[in-house]
Design goal:
It is a single chain. The chain has one domain: Ribosomal Protein L13p, Chain: A (Alpha-Beta Complex). The N and C termini lie far apart (about 55 Å). The chain contains seven helices and six strands. The strands form two sheets. The chain has a four-stranded parallel sheet with strand order 5-2-1-6, covered by helices on one side. A two-stranded antiparallel ribbon has the order 3-4. About 30% of the residues lie in helices and about 15% in strands. With about 170 residues, it is of the alpha/beta class.
């Protein structure tokens, strides 16, 4: 055994190292956890350009911002999130063969009323629906989730009517 190691980690030195006198006392009662509530939360506006972005990756970042998880004051049961404006929602892309092979299922409520649509169909008819479905699936399925999805604004073109809110560009 190395002579230095045996001297450093001998019985007496080890006991002195871990004695109660070597530990600093911390006043844990002075630390207060800040819990956000609807009066203390400040909401910002962000604009995201979806041109050429992969749908799932973009949707996960948008859901992250809508929930408010990017803020240090995040509280799970409070709407801490920000407003998100997505422009060029019709120019999102899918990886692999998902554009033709992925299926969106919905049910009309009548017998035999199950309907299928591919992303290619949705992009041609209602381009915002692809990104809206992806983001909605990543939010909680509660009252809070229904409240959060209302803070998402999707536009197929590069123009949006929210200039008065002074949205900041959000880099994905």
């Amino acid at each position: 055994m190395h002579p230095q190691k045996s001297r450093l980690f001998g019985g007496e030195e080890l006991r002195n190292l871990y004695s109660p006198l070597n530990f600093h006392k911390v006043d844990t009662l002075s630390y207060k956890t800040k819990a956000a509530n609807k009066e203390t939360v400040e909401h910002k506006w962000y604009v995201v350009d979806a041109d050429g972005e992969v749908v799932g990756r973009l949707a996960s970042r948008i859901a992250h911002v809508l929930r408010g998880k990017h803020k240090p004051s995040y509280t799970p049961h409070v709407d801490c999130g920000d407003y998100v404006i997505v422009i060029n929602a019709d120019k999102v892309r899918f990886t692999g063969q998902k554009l033709d092979q992925k299926e969106y299922l919905r049910y009309t409520g009548y017998p035999g009323g199950q309907r299928k649509a591919t992303p290619r169909d949705l992009l041609s008819k209602k381009p915002q629906a692809v990104l809206e479905n992806a983001v909605k699936g990543m939010l909680p399925k509660t009252k809070l989730g229904r409240q959060l999805i209302k803070k998402l604004f999707l536009y197929a073109g590069s123009e949006h009517p929210h200039q008065a809110q002074k949205p900041e560009p959000f880099n994905i």
